[in-house]
């Protein structure tokens, strides 16, 4: 009997192979973690052997000290950011848990990170000044937080503390910039902290007087509101919305000195 012929193999379906590979990639693994805390989305991890940053954000948000310590000691990313651009320090400041914040500071994170501009572009020091928690403000300043950084509306933590009436926070911020500098240290900026203007051209003194915090106003240099000062604020990156932009019309075939009659022909 003649040998049976083998059936020809069908050509591989590339789309099916790609779909199968994508499905395999989404299978849960020991390092996959979904965050169920409101406001925190899943954060991708760069190192597959390191704990997922979402676990770390959840532990900080729930003030689980032991879990935060365990994850950070297990090569957790101290400088991880969530989809809103918030760092672990931002989350710790919002919980107002000094013990958790001290633990995070022990791992030397980047402390002056700004959140995304959609939610204000604030640093952790802005949030602490808004909350009026002088213990957290002092801890951040002690670990190198800058009180001169401006948020999305160009407000410093001093502007926020003055408008909120947080007297002790204002004193802590002013004391931080008045500390004597050692030899060889860089000189202070031209504009002192108390004289910096926000996006409306207003100083911290203006906001303290505006909301009736006269005790705070006495600590600040008396700089009245000057509407013309807004002209000195850099607004090159601010795009003004124009629903009907007018574009100049260009005559491609026309040159200087050429005159045309009504039919579009050049006159001799």
From TrEMBL:
Q: Where is the composition biased (Basic residues)?
A: 246-268
Segments carrying the region annotation (Disordered) are 236-268
The answer, when asked if Repeat is one of the entry's keywords, is: yes
Identify the stretches annotated as ANK repeats.
120-152, 156-175
Q: Does the keyword Transit peptide apply?
A: no
Domain of life, per the record? Answer: Eukaryota
Q: Which UniProt keywords apply?
A: ANK repeat, Repeat
Q: Which InterPro entries match?
A: Ank_Repeat/CDKN_Inhibitor (IPR050776), Ankyrin_rpt (IPR002110), Ankyrin_rpt-contain_sf (IPR036770)
Recorded protein name is: Uncharacterized protein
Q: Which organism is it from?
A: Hemiselmis andersenii
């Amino acid at each position: 009997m003649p040998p049976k012929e083998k059936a020809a193999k069908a050509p591989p379906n590339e789309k099916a192979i790609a779909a199968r590979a994508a499905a395999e990639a989404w299978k849960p693994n020991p390092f996959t973690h979904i965050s169920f805390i409101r406001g925190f989305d899943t954060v991708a991890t760069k190192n597959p052997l390191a704990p997922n940053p979402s676990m770390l954000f959840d532990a900080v948000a729930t003030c689980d000290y032991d879990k935060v310590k365990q994850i950070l000691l297990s090569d957790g990313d101290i400088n991880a950011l969530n989809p809103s651009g918030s760092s672990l320090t931002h989350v710790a400041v919002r919980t107002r848990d000094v013990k958790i914040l001290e633990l995070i500071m022990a791992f030397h994170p980047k402390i002056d990170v700004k959140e995304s501009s959609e939610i204000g572009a604030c640093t952790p020091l802005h949030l602490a000044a808004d909350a009026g928690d002088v213990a957290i403000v002092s801890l951040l300043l002690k670990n190198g937080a800058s009180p001169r950084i401006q948020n999305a509306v160009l407000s410093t933590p001093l502007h926020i503390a003055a408008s909120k009436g947080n007297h002790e926070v204002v004193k802590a911020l002013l004391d931080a910039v008045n500390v004597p500098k050692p030899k060889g240290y860089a000189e202070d900026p031209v504009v002192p902290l108390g004289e910096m203007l926000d996006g409306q051209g207003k100083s911290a003194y203006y906001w303290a007087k505006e909301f009736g915090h006269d005790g705070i106003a006495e600590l600040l240099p008396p700089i009245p509101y000057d509407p013309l000062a807004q002209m000195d604020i850099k607004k090159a990156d601010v795009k003004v919305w124009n629903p009907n932009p007018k574009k100049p019309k260009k005559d491609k075939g026309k040159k200087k000195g050429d005159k045309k009659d009504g039919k579009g022909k050049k006159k001799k």
